[in-house]
Amino acid sequence: MRTESKLGLALLLTPLLLWLALLIFIPQVDVFLVSLRERIGVGQYQTSLANYLTFFNEPLYLWTFLRTAMMSIVATLITLLIAFPVSYYIAKMIKGRMQSALFLLCLVPFWVSELVRTFGWMILLRETGVFSNILQFVGLASGPVEMLYNDGAIMVGLVYTSMLFMVVPLVTTLESLPDEVVEAGYDLGGNGLSVLREIIVPHAMPGIVSGCIVVFMLSLGNYLTPTMLGGKESLWFTELIYSQFIVRFNWELGAAFGFLLLMLSSVIVWGMLKLTGQSLEKTMG
Amino acid sequence: MKKHSIALSASVTFALLAGGSAAHADTLRLLTWGGYAPEDVVAKFEAETGHTVEVTKSNNEEMIAKLRATGGGGFDLAQPSQDRIAGPQEEFGIYKPMDMSKIDAALFIPSMMEATKGNTTVGGDVYGVPHVWGTSGLVVDTAMAPMVKDYTDLCSADVAGKVSYRLKRPTLIGFAFSMGLDPFAAYGDEAAYADVMSQVEAKLIECKPGVKTYWGGGDELMGLLRSGEVVASMAWDTGGWKLNADKPDITFVAPASGALGWVDTFVLPAKGKADDAAYAWINFVMQPEVAAMITAAAGNFTASQGADEFAAADLKAKYQNSFPQAAIDNIKWYPPVPAGLEAIEGGVLDRVKAAK
Fold it and tell me: For residue B124, is it left (φ>0), alpha (ψ between -120 and 50) or beta?
């Protein structure tokens, strides 16, 4: 009986372990090994840290990473600010079919691919696009307005793309908050703000933290949205990795960038958790 | 023509039956550009030879990256440009030599065949034969931006905010020629090439405020030009001719400093498994009638001897309009890119992209 249950556990774990080992661990090790090679001639390589030094010595690459990280953090905060009231409304203010309908509405955009959604934004924002034409029609603008190819467009795209990944964890945690607790807060003389600060936000914290981590990582690793909406001003770190691998044939530097992205983003998430006094264990419940 | 092709296919079928050895059918995994393997050509080839064809569409960089990732496996026939064969072969060894005895040389325009063989020879072996050729230059809305005659005119204040180009190597090369430099002459000398590129970098950074966006794909560029948001751009000749059909003002202009000429080739990936099918495909698509079908789909002419006769008249007219004899003589054909130059270009492109 005991050996049987052990076997069962092993069999159940096998897909997960295979997944982790074959698709996550081994490729990362390989990427790391490639990143340690330096090209010294045609088809000749030696082991060195030159690629990592390039990252720290060339201000352009470091700057691009910092820019990507900062914009991802801002995108995460904006997503949280928009998603929190939406989630609260869905989880607490309405019930029944209306609740499922609204939740479904958040989901609908994700039935089409990210590419199509991004194209949608391009149609809206471009110089000959919908918004520009409406502004001219209403008389708010005298000529065509270009809203594409800048940081604002990237931000809009990132927030839109990540919204669902913030709403889902928030709705789940907020739904588990009993209405009586909120009522008790008001009975004890609290106002809207203090109830939000003392009761709702602390209860929703695990959802906020997990939502923020997911949205931050998705934004940091996003390729399509910044490239398409940002145009000539995009400059996103994943774009650098892509161009090193594909356009420049420089896999060594690309691999170093990829590995640095993994390390630095982990450090940022860890730092943010420490800064806000949260921990992954608490988040996971 | 119809009669002719039936007679031809009958004779090919006969040859195959007589040959006997080629009777077993293979799957040909073809790594190519959009338009180079149109469905009607594939269907005809499959009907005549019994081989099946799997087409994967790509571009130069992705082709090489894909073959590099597998050490030259996963595909049986690829079509990179001729200047991107010798360098990657020396560096990564992703191709295998062509057996010229299996290729019907009579189907090729002799001068193009010789030039491509010369450009794709590594260590005495020939790695590529020519297929489709064309140029890149300027696509201009002649009503809105008649003053754009050369690459550097894209920086002119008259068209500021309404120009676009790719942030890729053809732009660097084109701007260098337009600035009176000769990047091809500097190919052999990394220091000289870096010097040329740093001048181009300064120029591109200076031009950046006037650029609408750097286009990434052909469809994106078409959208920009069609909507009128962009009136002048660097692009391929076929892009200009396609737009010309919709908007007569837009056409391809060979730049004063010379259009950049490219030749896409056939190469055998190192671990290709269906060489016979690959050679059969090459000899099949180089027949004048079939080559004309590819010209109709891709918009570019091929290295097939005699295919011009079968090409559509309107395409020929557009070609002659964009290319007077002097412009043809002025085409700058890409020489093979030595391994390692991409790193220099990469740094330049990254810095231009990051410039404010």
Answer: left
Predicted ipTM of the assembly:
0.80
- Provide the residue type at A102 as one letter: L
B186 sits in which H/E element: none
What is the rounded CA–CA span in Å between residue A100 and residue A112? 20
Per residue in A207-250, pLDDT (tens digit) is 999 999 999 999 999 999 999 898 888 889 999 999 888 888 88
Measure CB to CB from residue A248 to each of B228, B229, B343 and give the nearest one.
B343
Report whether pLDDT(B218) > 90: no
pLDDT value at residue B122: 92
Beta bridge partners of A185: none
Name the CATH code of domain B2-133+262-318 (choices 3.40.190.10, 3.40.50.720, 1.10.1520.10, 1.20.1260.10).
3.40.190.10
B136-259+336-354 belongs to which CATH class?
Answer: alpha beta
Which of A247, A250, A257 is most worth mutating to test chain B (most B CB atoms within 10 A of its CB)?
A: A247
Q: What is the arithmetic mean of pLDDT over B166-189?
A: 93
Residues 6+ apart with CB under 8 A from A107: A164
Provide the chain A residues 23-52 that lie in CB contact (below 8 A) with chain B. 39, 42-43
Instruction: Give the per-residue pLDDT at B231.
Output: 94
